[in-house]
Amino acid sequence: MAVARVTEITSSSPSSFEDAIQQGIARANKTLRNVRSAWVQEQTVKVEDGAIAEYRVNMKVTFILDD
Fold first, then answer.
1. CA-to-CA distance for 54 and 65, rounded, in angstroms?
2. For the CA atoms of 26, 30, 33, 39, what is the dihedral angle to 10 degrees?
3. Closest CA to 65 of 18, 23, 7
4. Which of 58, 64, 13 is nearest to 35 (CA)?
5. Beta strand ranges found along the chain (DSSP E)
6. CATH numbers and ranges of domains, the chain
7. What's this model's pTM, rounded to 2 decimal places?
8. Which of 2, 29, 52, 58 is the most exposed place for a label (fewest CB within 10 A)?
9. Any idea what DSSP says for residue 1?
10. What is the DSSP letter of 65?
């Protein structure tokens, strides 16, 4: 029987939401083992001087716990 855990992370990128997701997953893989999925819960942008300065995503990452 496998037991999973969910952790919430926030990631950002100056170029796109897709890049923010990729960076968040890459960083989660450095710390967490057995990452299986991620649910992008929220997307927001940081605005500076009337332009988008940063894309941000809030994700729930699911990983399987070791026995």
1. 33
2. -30
3. 7
4. 64
5. 4-13, 35-48, 51-64
6. 4-64 (3.30.1660.10)
7. 0.89
8. 2
9. -
10. P
